[in-house]
């Protein structure tokens, strides 16, 4: 049974939007590995608390914010990789799964279940995350 005091990120979709808006405003302070230090996480906790009581679950404390950031960052980091591997993605249609590619999609989400919601629905935070997370591109001609 889930802890009633644990942060709930699904009850109010605006919670993630508000958190990412805060991180976007302090994006120059992100660490080299794409993570936030404890100071920024505590500031995010104060920011989230200032928006009012959560719809469901406990307050968004810095540890819950850190864990949610890891989930969101993982999704943002993997999405372009899978687009480059042959899956077409758009902000409106997601991966645009239809009868022609449904079996391949089923195999894909078995290995990567975090992409299941994006079968036919885009991710509204993709552009924001692209602005927050620094590029990990490497190579001779990367500037």
TrEMBL record:
Q: Which domain of life is it from?
A: Eukaryota
What is the protein named?
Myb/SANT-like domain-containing protein
Origin organism lineage = Eukaryota, Fungi, Dikarya, Basidiomycota, Agaricomycotina
